[in-house]
Amino acid sequence: MHAAAPLIRIRQLNKAYRRGEQVIPVLTNLDLEVAPGEFVALMGPSGSGKSTLLNLIAGIDKPSGGTIEIGGVDIATLSEGELADWRAQNVGFVFQFYNLIPVLTAFENVELPLLLTGLSSRQRRERTAAVLDLVGLTDRVEHYPNELSGGQQQRVAIARALVSDPLLIVADEPTGDLDRVTGEEVLLLLEQLVDELGKTIVMVTHDPKAASHAHRMVHLEKGVLVDEVPA
Amino acid sequence: MFLLRLLLKNAFRHKLRTGLTLVGLVVAVCAFGLLRTIVDAWYAGVEASSSTRLVTRSATSLTFPLPLNYAQRIRGVDGVSAISWANWFGGIYITERNFFPQFAVDAASYLALYPEYVLPETEKLGFLRDRQGAVVGRKLADKFGWKVGDQIPLRGTIYPGTWNFTLRGIWDGVDAKTDESQMLFHWAFVNESLRKRLSGRSDYVGVYIVGINEPNNAALISQRVDAQFKNSLAETLTETEKAFQLSFVSMSEAILVAIQAVSLIIIIIIMAVMANTMTMTARERLAEYATLKALGFSPGFVVQLLFGESLLIALIGGVLGLVLTWPMASAFGAAAGTLFPVFQISGLTMALQVLAAAVVGVVAAVWPAWRMSRIDIVAGLRHVG
């Protein structure tokens, strides 16, 4: 476990959806802390609330109650516009199906988040090239997503998540669409980001083997945190 | 630059769909321009009319002629600087399908009142000296391949018999608005013949063309002219040449309104087609827009993407449609022959074509842009899986 002050501090987090008159609780009174540079795997059966928790941490969903402090900011209190700015500066996303823009090349996909920064065109190009080099895709920069394998597409997505140097990377089943060997390569790359760059990663996965790459596994069941174990 | 590149790539992501939408836009913008040009052509006579000319006709109806001796009295009215007269001839050249306007005119005074008919001096003199001579506009001469010296036989309908004229000159319009589809010949020649054969119909004219120096006094001078013949057997109605021409256009106003309505309906139809395209596009890219929003892009960026893409497609279609209107209008004008003396795409029509395309682009993107700017990120991302 990491002894440093937590990067993520979640207190009494509640999330419920309303379907007509019915209120369906998804997360109930959840407390969680994640230290800077920690790699946490969220696990649990379908419907346990792990993806909802990830979405709340990433600031793309709003809680029904409780606080989510990330880097000292309670994102539950931010407006939509403030949240968008906060995400642009602090969160990198890695999705199960990569979510790359199909009409943009690998280079352009990675450069995309930098449009939200004040960087010049030259600075953007330099940083994009460096990140693509880091994920080992220097020779694929002009390729479109449909010209890349699943593993390469996920590497582009990781480069995109990394390019704006966020505090936090959230990964939703990042190996869910990949074969075992490619998935392992992607997980090693994520580990590398934590070990060498000190990034904090919160990853949702069903796969215990994938979770074993994390520092800690957090198990959820029916919206309640039931177990926390080192991987 | 990045945004423009993204807009271009997005616009042509589905080449078939975008291509078909563009075809629709091109056809719509072209049809809109063509229909507006037809309406403009209808009003061409009005546009070409002079503010220094009045037309005096029978107050009862244009079909009732006026006595020739009115000319002297009109000439004496204060404010009148010149006078001429003309009779609608209504002859047939070989077959009824070859229709073109023919006027028997008092040649010297008529040509003096119509300086927009530019006739070489030698041809003008040749016409004035030959009582059986005629002059035609360039468009009419080109249509029938006439050249100076040719004989033009007309079968009279209002004035019975076959009338042979010798072409003495071909005029060019001083500008594109000038009518070049008419034929003019000597009123005196027709009148002489009538005097011999139908003496009761001689010494009458269809309309007087009254020249004035001060257009601002047109209404006053018109009143003065008409006052001259008040309570006579042939009372007159004097109006500006523009009003005279408008009275003809107003006869076909229902058709013009229908044409204008059709041109607008075409634009509304393509607007619906374009809106459908943009709605489909937006729905397909739901996950992409959700991803962009997750990355931190504002709803405004998504709106920009949709409006930009829609406007880009619409303007490409609009410009292509505009360019295509030229050959279409040229072919249409040639096919219509002398039906439309002037058939030219106006600057206003071109501007309206581009504006219509832009409006189509904007309106088509309103609904999908509004929807996509409000999408829930989580729901949108779920759309992928």
Our count of domains of chain B comes out at 2
Contiguous runs where pLDDT drops below 50 for at least 5 residues of chain B: none
Distance between the termini of chain A: 10 Å
Q: Please outline the major beta sheet of chain A.
A: 6 strands, mixed
What is the count of DSSP helices of chain B, taking H or I runs of 4+ residues?
A: 15
Principal-axis shape of chain A: globular
Distance between the termini of chain B: 32 Å
Helical stretch tally of chain A: 7
Explain this structure to me?
The complex is a heterodimer of chains A (231) and B (385). Chain A is an alpha/beta fold. Chain A is built from seven helices and ten strands. In chain A, strands 6-7-8-3-9-10 form a six-stranded mixed β-sheet, sandwiched between helices. Chain A is globular. The model of chain A has no long low-confidence stretch (mean pLDDT 92). Chain B has 385 residues and is an alpha+beta fold. Chain B has two domains: 2-44 and 253-382, no CATH class; 60-234, no CATH class. In chain B, 57% of the residues lie in helices and 16% in strands. In chain B, the strands form two sheets. In chain B, strands 1, 3, 4, 5, 6, 7, 8, 9, 11 and 12 form a ten-stranded mixed β-sheet that branches. In chain B, strands 2-10 form a two-stranded antiparallel sheet. The two termini of chain B are 32 Å apart. Classes of the chains: A alpha/beta (231), B alpha+beta (385).
How do the helices and strands line up, and which of them pair or pack?
The complex is a heterodimer of chains A (231) and B (385).
Chain A: E1 8-19, E2 22-34, E3 39-43, H1 50-58, E4 65-70, E5 73-74, H2 80-90, E6 91-94, H3 106-111, H4 121-134, H5 150-162, E7 168-172, H6 180-197, E8 200-204, H7 208-211, E9 216-221, E10 224-230
Parallel strand pairs in A: 3-8, 3-9, 6-7, 7-8
Antiparallel strand pairs in A: 1-2, 1-4, 4-5, 9-10
Helix pairs in contact in A: 4-5, 5-6
Chain B: H1 2-11, H2 15-42, H3 44-48, E1 53-58, E2 66-67, H4 70-75, E3 80-88, E4 102-105, H5 107-113, E5 117-118, H6 121-129, E6 133-137, H7 138-144, E7 151-155, E8 162-173, E9 183-186, H8 187-197, E10 204-205, E11 207-212, H9 218-228, E12 236-240, H10 241-251, H11 253-284, H12 286-295, H13 299-336, H14 347-373, H15 377-382
Parallel strand pairs in B: 4-9, 6-8
Antiparallel strand pairs in B: 1-11, 1-12, 2-10, 3-4, 3-11, 5-8, 6-9, 7-8
